[in-house]
Amino acid sequence: MIGMTVATLPTSRRSASPRRRAPQIIEATAMVFAERGFHGATTQDIADVLGIRQASLYYYFSSKEAALELVCLRGVEGFFETGKAIAARPESAQKRLSLLISSHLSPMLDRGNFVKVFLNERQHLPTESRRRIGRWSRGLERIFEQVIEEGVAAGEFRAGLDARLVTLAVLGMCNAASSWYLKENKGVPAIAAEFSNLVIDGLAIRPAKRRPSRR
Amino acid sequence: MIGMTVATLPTSRRSASPRRRAPQIIEATAMVFAERGFHGATTQDIADVLGIRQASLYYYFSSKEAALELVCLRGVEGFFETGKAIAARPESAQKRLSLLISSHLSPMLDRGNFVKVFLNERQHLPTESRRRIGRWSRGLERIFEQVIEEGVAAGEFRAGLDARLVTLAVLGMCNAASSWYLKENKGVPAIAAEFSNLVIDGLAIRPAKRRPSRR
DNA sequence: AATTCTATCTATCGACCTATAGAATAAGTC
DNA sequence: GACTTATTCTATAGGTCGATAGATAGAATT
User: Of B124, B155, B201, which has the smallest distance from its Cβ to A202's Cβ?
Assistant: First the structure.
């Protein structure tokens, strides 16, 4: 016990950090919201998962809606930034679209519940945070749309396609994965590869359709 | 008066049919469920839309869950049958898949709310009816899957593709339309055409550089 | 040892929501 | 006009849920 100022380096915040269980609480919340939906889930359900009392949750969030906002934020965070970074790369539109699809799918692995809650329950956020989160969402749509348009302009993609509709198709396809990727036994890379192939090349076999005479 | 057994044929049910407003009530229910979700909606909300008292709704359905079941049923009905009929046609897999996509999208027009509720809220049905409705759902998936596999077998579609994943992709893409088709200003035929093109041919331009390279 | 901080608990309030019971009204029907 | 059936109403029981207040136990700090 001689005057040792050693442990005072980071103000000796050895274990005094408040709300150490916060990550665990938010994880359980995401799970319950993903399973039952925001209004279908009760704070009691969340408490049960954690083995604590319902009222104890309010040490970690101020309201059920605030908890939803926390979950939704972790469900979108990163999507926009990594999307923007990919779109800015000096590669072909094909390659960038494939990367966009892949990066859009990968969060299913480690934060599937968060993504699912964001996709299905964000409508129940209080108006203000819903708007804020909606902006990020629309931003991501624009990134996809723009890469597709660049692909058309570069002669990589079919002329005359509706970039908006294609964007909605691709995002719909990817987002749907949040509802089945746990039941189906497919790895994220396999899904990303199949989806990319589908979007870039389609199902039909390559040989040109020069002559309509099929068979 | 005189022994006239004439009017007794349909018991003269001129206007004595019970629950004449039932279609209107179920329509309002679908709308409210689509907007706020099953648990987020109250029976009061539905009554407000109709301009009647909350308790009056129970003349038309026996419980809120029963109302959800009615809505969900109208949201799936027809999908499976028309899908099966299309799959059985003697046309190319390409053509049949296009028709499947188109017929899967068209109910958005006249029963969008029902479809939306089925897609988003069926999880909240009581176990039994959820199972029953789930069977129809899986049946439809199998129809898509099979047409795709037939396309591969016939040499129309790429060999080696994962028919299950492609099915999930196509259905995800189509189902997502239920959440945006009201906001976007696109007609169902335009959506169906764009989606079909995307799925069959992909985005990439058909490379004419298909050099047969002898052999 | 005394004090402060962290995390959880007990207890409960008020609001809201589904569903029931039975009365009241409206619309034919005899 | 009396009767019957269809529809909506009033009133409320009964239950659940989110949220607050205050107590408590343990750990860390001084």
Answer: B201
Single pTM value for the model: 0.89
| CATH architecture, range A20-71 | Orthogonal Bundle (1.10)
Homologous superfamily (CATH) of B74-201 is: Tetracycline Repressor, domain 2 (1.10.357.10)
Strand D positions with any atom < 7 Å from protein CB?
5-12, 16-22, 27-30
Please give the backbone phi and psi of residue A184, each rounded to the nearest 5 degrees, phi first. -75, 150
Nucleotide in closest CA–C1' contact with A15: D28
Q: What architecture does CATH give domain B22-72?
A: Orthogonal Bundle (1.10)
Q: Round to a whole number and report the distance in Å from the CA of B42 to the C1' of C16.
A: 10
| pLDDT tens digits for range A115-143 | 999 999 999 999 999 999 999 999 999 99
The protein footprint on chain C, as nucleotides within 7 A of a CB, is 5-12, 16-22, 27-30
Of the partner residues B120, B175, B206, the one whose CB lies closest to the CB of residue A176: B175
* Amino acid (1-letter code) at residue B184: E
- Per-residue confidence (pLDDT) for residue A207, from 0 to 100: 62
Name B157's bridge partners: A204
- Residues A142-188 have pLDDT tens digits of 999 999 999 999 999 999 999 999 999 999 999 999 999 999 999 99
pLDDT band of B16, cuts 50, 70, 90? low
Q: How many angstroms separate the CA atoms of A146 and A9, rounded?
A: 49
Of A203, A206, A214, which to mutate for an interface test with B (greatest number of B Cβ within 10 Å)? A203
Q: Candidates 3.30.70.100, 1.10.10.10, 1.10.357.10, 1.20.120.1200; correct CATH number of A72-201?
A: 1.10.357.10
**Phi-psi region at A133: left, alpha or beta (left = phi > 0; alpha = psi -120 to 50):** alpha
